[in-house]
Amino acid sequence: MDTGSRQENASKQESEAFGVYVHWPFCLSKCPYCDFNSHVRHAAIDEARFASAFAREIETTAARASGREVSSIFLGGGTPSLMQPATVGAVLDAIGKHWSVAGDVEVTLEANPTSVEATRFAGYRSAGVNRVSLGVQALDDASLKALGRLHSAREALDAVAIARRSFDRYSFDLIYARPDQTPAMWADELRLAIDEAAEHLSLYQLTIEEGTPFFGLYRAGKLKTPDEAVARALYDVTQETCDKLGLPAYEISNHARRGAECRHNLVYWRGEEYAGIGPGAHGRLDIDGIRHATATEKRPEAWLMRVETNGDGIVTDELLNSEERADEFLLMGLRLAEGIDPERYKALSGRPLDPKRIALLREEGAIIVDPTGRLRVTSSGFPVLDAVVADLAA
Length: 394
Fold this sequence. Notes:
Elements: H1 3-15, E1 18-24, E2 26-27, E3 39-40, H2 47-64, E4 69-77, H3 85-98, E5 100-111, H4 118-127, E6 131-137, H5 141-146, H6 153-166, E7 169-176, H7 183-197, E8 200-205, H8 213-219, H9 228-244, E9 249-251, E10 254-256, H10 263-269, E11 273-277, E12 282-287, E13 290-296, H11 300-310, E14 314-319, H12 322-333, H13 342-349, H14 355-363, E15 367-369, E16 375-377, H15 385-393
Parallel strand pairs: 1-4, 1-11, 2-3, 4-5, 5-6, 6-7, 7-8
Antiparallel strand pairs: 8-10, 9-10, 12-13, 13-14, 15-16
Helix pairs in contact: 2-3, 3-4, 7-9, 12-13
């Protein structure tokens, strides 16, 4: 790489955020809609062994991607709140040992209401966690039972109250477009959620993923989800209610008060660098000016052995060419309300977006180009976002 490229890369590392994602793959039970890399183990988990393996993979990854300052850390899963606070502390200490860490680093831990205890949350806070994200999913007991959740609505709200007392920043998830859900029911639930959420909500439409129990039920006609018209009405209620009550969407499924956006997830959507640590974790690293798309072994025990033998659990390390990187930037960036800078797309791909396609999509009301030149998807374009992205990328 020539000197100019090195300087550009150094400048990029100084100006852009850098995230570290750590995957804890274990859950108390497997939810019937979930296709994430999560596993149920009835025997006790050897947390000390996993903590050592996390530290080893962090060390190896930091050697490949040195000189970064970590701006966000996200402990996801699985159910990271099943970890002892000491395990979380060991992981965060390893990150701090091998990378520099920003003074205002955002450290998020995902938790399920069934595993929330005030004493454990105090331990996480002492370990360095400063934000939690709770997998509430619904605020009525019938829906929670249908979704295979182990907690009640009361337990969920109690967990939110513990999070509120323990952390300045917290969020929780809800799933909508559930069987038999009406827009009026969802509006009532959403108002209650916003009263409890304070600053951030993640609101996902239920999707039926192949390989899950819900997929089999759906194919057999035993699970009915709202039709397209009702699903669109539920989406519209989501946007209108959140806008009115001060939590507008900053990403297609995420809502926050101004300044309370999840900084770690913005790393993904803005196409910045992040390290993926743990079983089944994905990463995006720029090494010698080339974007690497990494993925680790999904099976927890196999990942452990691979890390202990090789120093990391990587099973895929793909070099993205300019077109692939630009397409990924487009796909992720257009999920954001802030949209994308077409000049960055041009710099990544080596060609500009087609002005004719932009003009047509503007005419259809799916996108706008704001006064600063940023290209943004409109409220009417977001429900057909996949089609908008495909049209622009063609």
